[in-house]
Every structure is written in structure tokens, then in C-alpha cells.
Amino acid sequence: MRFQPVLDTLPVYEAGKPIELVVREFGIPPEKVIKLASNENPYGVSSSVQAKVSEALVKMPLYPDDSYRELKESLAVSNGVGVKNVIQGNGSDQIFDFATRSVLEKGDLVLQNGKTFSMYSIYSGQCGADTLSTDSTEHDLNRFSDLYKKHHPKLIFLCTPCNPIGDALPKTDVFSFLDTISPETLVVLDGAYMDFGKTRDPKTEILPAEIVSKYPNVVYTGTFSKVYGLGGMRIGYGIANEEIIRAFYKLRPPFNVSQLSQLAATEALKDQDFVNQYLESNLRELEKYETFSESKGLPFFRSYANFLTIRLDRAKLSSTELFETLLREGIILRNLKSYGLNAIRITVGRPDQNRIVLDRLSALL
Ligand SMILES: *Cc1c(COP(=O)(O)O)cnc(C)c1O
Description:
Blueprint: H1 19-26, E1 34-35, H2 47-56, H3 69-79, E2 86-89, H4 92-103, E3 109-112, H5 119-126, E4 130-133, H6 141-151, E5 155-159, H7 171-179, E6 186-190, H8 194-200, H9 208-214, E7 218-223, E8 236-239, H10 242-251, H11 259-268, H12 272-296, E9 307-311, H13 319-328, E10 331-332, E11 334-335, E12 343-347, H14 351-364
Parallel strand pairs: 1-10, 3-4, 3-5, 5-6, 6-7
Antiparallel strand pairs: 2-8, 7-8, 9-12, 11-12
Helix pairs in contact: 2-11, 3-11, 4-5, 4-10, 8-12, 12-14
The structure holds pyridoxal-5'-phosphate.
Residues 39, 91-93, 117, 159, 163, 190, 192, 223, 225-226, 231, 236 line the site of pyridoxal-5'-phosphate (PLP).
GO molecular function: histidinol-phosphate transaminase activity; pyridoxal phosphate binding
Keywords: Amino-acid biosynthesis, Aminotransferase, Histidine biosynthesis, Pyridoxal phosphate, Transferase
Pathway: Amino-acid biosynthesis; L-histidine biosynthesis; L-histidine from 5-phospho-alpha-D-ribose 1-diphosphate: step 7/9
């Protein structure tokens, strides 16, 4: 069979290793596995969300309300925007997919940071577009500006705070940059880690309402996968001006978010105490990993997210050796070798998990 030529060069997304793999390959009981590889909420999900989902199991045979009115109203109210400014996605990933397909044609250019979420260039590649990356590890908006002026990309991805490095941009810098971008260029502002960033430094917080009121060409994306503990439910959203949302709707499959996922997300928004407790714990525990790295003389990237990326160039083990050793012990971290870094990314866990991981790291590094 002849597949589309772009498929010849498209990589397959490499996800964090699942608990099931460690159970299968190393015979470790699942309750003993510590998975700090995919930036999930280590406390799980709010108990009110669990109750809501259990109650709603009877709705499984029915398609969801395809207008997603209740969810979108909750998102609109909590973000101070109109319902018409919101679109639900099967993960925020689906919003990236809508964004690329809505503007990109074969041969177009997409601008992104040197180290960033790998799905941006995969979605862009699916449309036949080419990705231009800055040569910076942390976001550097001067380099974005240089490449923007030279190449006039159709689409720009900004991720702040950014995965896999953890860097965040001050809001004022982002707005100064956006002020120079043509309204003909679509910008995706990925705010998957925004809550963590604002907890560390309020100057990094960008509100979707400000984006909607100031920039008709920018879509803000958010997710329930991280701070809300709903990674397994696959639910995210985009917030933008109505014209963008209308275009995205034309690309949307019917019932793109499951019944249980939309109910879970709507309920999760109500329990901000659960979110705030996690955010406080995350910052306290993140600082433990930073202190550890400093004590070992290992450079790390200051993180505004729920993970810490530690460079291992000066360590006894490479990132691959460390990753594989810990995997066999039932500790799953993220090896950043595929990002061209000899670095390990550790999702900040609960105190009991972090104690074990820090003990092992201390012994190995
Ligand atoms: C985890 C993550 C997301 C969220 O993806 P979902 O599809 O909503 O689960 C988005 N962007 C970045 C950079 C992430 O790390």
C-alpha cells in the first residue's frame, strides 16, 4: 500500500512507560511501582469526582450531550470568558490537532522552541508542514522573533511553563512578543502547567480571558490531565475568540469527549481545595529535589511545573543507565535522551514516593 509520503518521516510519540510494563517485565506488584514519568497528579483525583463518576456509570450506554454545555459553561465561568470562546478536546492534544489542521497546508512553517512538547511537530508534520525550532533549551523570545521575521511561519507554539524543561515566561514578555505577531499567524499558548507556574511566581500567570480580549489570533489550551488528576480521562480545552473556535468545530469528530470524562471534568472544577493542596505540596516537594541536586553538584533547570529536569553530564551514570536501573526497581522516571539531552525528568510525587526516589538517586549518583 502507498501511504501518504509524510508518514515516511513522522516519528511515533514516545509516552512515559506505563505501570503495566514494569509489572509485566519485572514482576513487580503494581502497588509497589512508583510512576513519576508523565507529570500526573500523584494524589489521584478529588473524591467528589470519583463519586460523580461512579454515580454516572449508568450513563455509559448513552452518547454524551454533544453541545457539552455544562462543561463549557463551567469553564467559561471559571475563566471569565463566554461559552462561545470555549471548545472541549479529547485531551488538550486534540486542540493542537485542530489548530494545526485549521491553518496548515503542505510546505507551511511552524515555529516552536528548541526543547518542547514533541506532539507539536508531529501534528504539524501530519499536515505536511515543516517545523522550525529555536536553538534554545529554555524559551528565548528574542530567538522566536528573529525566526518569525525571517520565515513568517503560519503557526507558533508557545508552552509556558514548558515540558520537558520546566521554564516559564513572564506574562509581560509574552504579551510584548504577541504584540509583534501578525493577526494572520495563529499562536497556540499551551498552559498545561499554568497553575504550577503561578504558584511559584505569579508574574508567569497568563489568564485565558486576557488572551481572548487582547489577541484574536491566539488560542489558550488547558488540560485536566495534570493538576486535576484526570490524565486517564483524556480531557482538555481551548479558549480563543469565536472565529477560531468556530473553525475548530468544523474539524471536530462528534462526541469528541466521553460522557464520563466531561462529567468528571465539570465536577473537578468545583473542588479547588483539592487543587490548592496539591499545588502547595508540589512546591514543597519540588524544593527537596532541587536541594538534592544542588548537594550533588548536578545542574538542573529551575522548574515552574510539577517536575524537575536534572542534567547528568557530571553524574556517574548517563540518563539511560539511570533510567534503566530504576525501571528494574519499579521506579519509572522520564529519560530525556530522545530530546537530545543527557537528563532525567522526575515528576514530583507524594512525600512518601519522593523519599524513596531521593534515597535511590542519592545512592546511585
Ligand atoms: C501533559 C501536557 C499536555 C496535556 O496533554 P493532554 O492531551 O491534555 O493530556 C499538554 N501540553 C504539554 C506540554 C504537556 O506536557
